[in-house]
Automatic annotation (TrEMBL), chain A:
Keywords: GTP-binding, Hydrolase, Nucleotide-binding, Ribonucleoprotein, RNA-binding, Signal recognition particle. It holds the Pfam family SRP54_N. InterPro entries: AAA+_ATPase (IPR003593), P-loop_NTPase (IPR027417), Signal_recog_part_SRP54_M_sf (IPR036891), Signal_recog_particl_SRP54_hlx (IPR013822), Signal_recog_particle_SRP54_M (IPR004125), SRP (IPR004780), SRP54 (IPR022941), SRP54_GTPase_dom (IPR000897). GO terms for molecular function: 7S RNA binding; GTP binding; GTPase activity. GO terms for biological process: SRP-dependent cotranslational protein targeting to membrane. This is signal-recognition-particle GTPase. It is an enzyme of class 3 (hydrolase). Residues 446-498 are annotated as: Disordered. Signal peptide: none annotated. SMART domains: AAA, SRP54, SRP54_N. It comes from freshwater metagenome. Residues 1-86 form the Signal recognition particle SRP54 helical bundle domain. Residues 99-303 form the AAA+ ATPase domain.
TrEMBL record, chain B:
It is a peripheral membrane protein. It comes from freshwater metagenome. Belongs to the GTP-binding SRP family. This is Unannotated protein. PROSITE patterns: SRP54. Keywords: Cell membrane, Cytoplasm, GTP-binding, Hydrolase, Membrane, Nucleotide-binding, Receptor.
Length: 498, 333
């Protein structure tokens, strides 16, 4: 999603990396590029200006000139500032001490409030809450109806005493909904309000009145990730007019560069709590500022990846794998096993997109054929047990038999054996030194061995994406951007990144 | 500015295809094709656009400020610097110095970038029904646009049919039905929720042809431009329509708040459905929709219509000069 912005910044930093010492002119060139990149990503001009000033001040200070690797230090500063603007720590939804918790949704027309109301309700339901949706958008034609359809779809009741289309008093509806929720013991009330334009005083007053009537625990401001420079005006208008407690970024799955996230956080100082992607009712997740900052800088969304991995990659087998690696008994069976583990995590494409440096591979990712794994599996399954344990015995005639058995060509078999050898070699390095913990991801063992030990530490840090040592990270980054194989070599292990 | 369209009088032979309206109409008799000039009610968006430059007092020294202001109106970095350099050149060659003169030049430059020979809706070829395919990402105001447009066309005497091919969004069809009844237009609905939108489009086209409608407007579901399956579906919709009637206009609806992503949207939709015009909606908010300048600059697609509010009549043709004057503002700072 931040693809283009991160690619640009990476490009900019590449030029910096080659320098041992930074002159003020170097810094200015870089800052011009950052300014440009941010503007093209729709970050509001005033936010860009203050951001660039802040980075410049720090970049020209002692902390950079005395640093071991000044260029890397600048990257670090940019990352710090991004995290700071995005709100620092992750903020969770606030629940009332005594039920029901009242959540009010506000935002422009077409920002996705009604759809979001449904997603939020579904998410809350999965958390064990009993939500109810309130149709307080009585303006837009058929908004009430739409909410009802959404409610039906996710099996959440909708409180809609008024037909809408301009009929009914939304403040009264909101007020009654609370009474209703208390009576019927609903734990969360989600109030969908009429969409409005930032400047529309009348509707803004209505939202304010609803707010006063229901005294919500959260007033969530829903904003379209594709919004441009106007994001600051809109966010300010809502913050001043209605008073918001948090932000939801919607439609984040388009290819919008999402600069609005920076603009809104910066102008209102209010945290982004959720991001909503996609059209399905499940396309909804909590927002992590630090991960977003990493994404902007193309450091990859490694933490999300780890969480997903942990869900499906069972620890015992990972530990076993690590031991095997250390003993150098990694076989084709293990290789296959890993791939199957990998599969459990879901689509490879979506996982790889979260990888550090993935910006560079994005086009290849688009063309990546998931069936590649099936083919690899077919080849390995066509081998005898002895062959799987000792790939060294694979001579020409064995390879030709395997090719026939799996319906592939001898070239395919050869390339698989090569990839396996590379992977085995790489993993040995990992197991011994554990150097490239994360970047080796597609060669899963890197992760398996790596994150078990390293995870706690990584969680404590702001972004445990890669090596904590900036210089080391620079080296990794440099390698990647220059198009060399990542230390993890892994892209190739599964036939990617050719 | 008057927008005149030609419309076949209802009691004439529908089989005769109108050719050139200007040649045909004066000598038309009862037996022949008769084309009647239809004046759509006049509308203007002049008062809806608020100046972004009201706080700047222009002089030759501070022209850089224009760039920042244009960026804030979503013109984009490249377009903004291009405009500024054009303004500088013109100011120099005309020796313009005063605030008023410089404003005039800026208006000229912006308007020039937004002028286009084909900015009127293509409703005059005579080959009815004129099919308008309305596309765009989610939440930009496609359905509202269709409601306003059909109402306007109905006021001008056009018989309008609407095809509700947004079979995805909850209650989209009901919303459209509300608009259609307000506008007195016919509505072709899907038989069931989630039906193939191409099938609805096909039926709507068939019905419009059969009943001799003047204009057929097809509503489509909002889709983000990077969802390739949904974009393919759009391609299918346009293909099934074209099997029966040539599409007169593919209108991409852009929300004025859209930032630089608007350009990506325009590119993607053009690739799939050959967009012929932009409808810029929600222009009454604080956003200015400057991205349309970049869209026309890079893709040559003009803005044809603008939406300026929630009322059914808050809708007009796009007038480049008016738009530019509105953005820059004529009054002294």
């Amino acid at each position: 999603m931040f693809g283009n912005l991160s690619d640009r910044l990476v490009e900019t930093f590449k030029n910096l990396r080659t320098k041992g010492k930074l002159s003020p002119a170097d810094i200015d060139t870089t800052l011009r590029e950052i300014r440009r990149a941010l503007l093209e990503a729709d970050v509001a001009l005033e936010v860009v200006k203050s951001f660039v000033t802040a980075v410049r001040d720090r970049a020209l200070s002692d902390e950079v000139s005395k640093a071991l690797n000044p260029a890397q230090q600048v990257v670090q500063i940019v990352d710090d500032e991004l995290v700071q603007i995005l709100g620092g720590e992750q903020r969770k939804l606030v629940f009332a001490k005594t039920a029901p918790t009242v959540i009010m949704l506000a935002g422009l027309q077409g920002s996705g409030k009604t759809t979001l109301a449904g997603k939020l309700a579904k998410w809350l339901k999965e958390q064990g809450q009993t939500p109810i949706l309130v149709a307080a958008d009585l303006q837009r034609p058929n908004a009430v109806n739409q909410l009802q359809v959404v409610g039906d779809r996710i099996d959440v009741p909708v409180f809609a005493p008024e037909p809408g289309n301009g009929v009914g008093d939304p403040v009264k509806v909101a007020k009654e909904s609370i009474k209703h929720a208390k009576q019927k013991m609903f734990s969360v009330v989600i109030v969908d309000t009429a969409g409005r334009l930032g400047v529309d005083k009348e509707l803004m007053a209505e939202a304010k009145a609803i707010r006063q009537a229901v005294n919500p625990d959260e007033v969530l401001f829903v904003i379209d990730a594709m919004i441009g420079q106007d994001a600051v005006n809109v966010a300010r208008a809502f913050d001043e007019g209605v008073g918001i407690t948090g932000v939801v970024l919607s439609k984040l799955d388009g290819d919008a560069r999402g600069g609005a996230a920076l603009s809104v956080s910066s102008v209102t100082g209010k945290p982004i709590i959720f991001s909503s992607t996609g059209e399905g009712m499940d396309d909804f997740e909590q927002f992590y500022p630090d991960r977003m900052a990493s994404r902007i800088l193309d450091m990859g969304d490694v933490l999300t990846l780890i969480e997903q991995t942990q869900k499906s990659f069972d620890e015992a087998s990972a530990r076993e794998m690590a031991e095997k690696l250390a003993k150098d008994t990694f076989t084709l069976d293990d290789f296959l096993d890993q791939m199957q583990q990998l599969r459990k995590m879901g689509s490879l494409k979506s996982m790889l997109a979260m990888m550090p440096g993935a910006g560079q591979m994005r086009n290849q990712l688009e063309n990546f054929d998931e069936r590649e794994i099936d083919r690899t599996e077919a080849i390995i399954r066509s081998m005898t047990k002895a062959e799987r344990l000792q790939p060294k015995i694979l001579n020409g005639s064995r390879r030709s038999r395997i090719a026939k058995g799996s319906g592939m060509t001898v070239t395919d078999v050869n390339s698989l054996v090569n990839r396996f050898e590379q992977a085995a070699k790489m993993m040995k390095t990992v197991a011994k030194g554990g150097v490239p913990q994360m970047p080796g991801m597609p060669g899963m063992p890197g992760m398996g061995g790596g994150f078990i030990g390293g995870r706690g530490k990584q969680k404590d840090k702001k972004k445990g994406s890669k090596s904590g040592n900036p210089a080391k990270r620079a080296a990794e980054d440099a390698g990647r951007t220059l198009g060399e194989k990542p230390t993890g070599g892994s892209g190739s292990s599964f036939g990617l990144g050719q | 500015m008057a927008f005149q369209f030609w419309k076949k009088k209802k009691d004439t032979d529908p089989a005769v295809q109108a050719t050139d309206a200007a040649v045909e109409s004066p000598s038309a008799t009862q037996d022949h094709e008769e084309l009647v000039a239809v004046d759509l009610p006049k509308r203007s968006a002049r008062n809806a656009i608020k100046s972004i430059f009201s706080r700047i007092k222009f002089d030759v020294e501070n022209l850089e400020l224009i760039e920042d202001t244009l960026i804030q109106a979503d013109f984009g970095l490249e377009a903004a610097s291009e405009i500024v350099s054009k303004v500088k050149d013109l100011a120099k060659s005309r020796a313009a110095k005063t605030n008023q003169e410089l404003r005039q030049i800026l208006i000229e430059v912006i308007a020039q970038g937004l002028e286009h020979p084909a900015k009127a809706l293509n409703l005059s070829s005579g080959a009815t029904p004129y099919v308008l395919l309305v596309v765009g990402v989610n939440g930009v105001g496609k359905t509202t646009t269709i409601g306003k447009l059909s109402n306007w066309l109905a006021q001008g005497g056009f018989r309008v049919t609407i095809g509700a091919a947004d079979t995805f969004r909850a209650a989209a069809v009901d919303q459209l039905a509300t608009w259609a009844s307000r506008a007195g237009a016919k509505l072709v609905k899907p038989i069931q929720e989630g039906q193939d939108p191409a099938a609805v489009a096909f039926e709507a086209t068939e019905q419009a042809v059969r009943e001799g409608a003047d204009v057929l407007i097809i509503d489509t579901a909002g889709r983000l431009q990077n969802k390739s399956d949904l974009m393919d579906q759009l391609g299918k919709i346009s293909r099934v329509i074209e099997k029966q009637v040539k599409i007169a206009e593919v209108l991409l609806v852009l929300d004025a708040t859209t930032g630089q992503n608007g350009l990506t949207q325009a590119k993607a939709f053009t690739q799939i459905a050959n967009v012929t015009g932009i409808v810029l909606t929600k222009l009454d908010g604080s956003a200015k929709g400057g991205i349309v300048y970049s869209v026309q600059r890079e893709l040559g697609i003009p803005v044809k219509l603008v939406g300026t509010g929630e009322g059914i009549e808050d809708f007009s043709f796009f007038d480049a000069a008016e738009f530019a004057a509105g953005i820059v503002g004529l009054e002294e700072a």
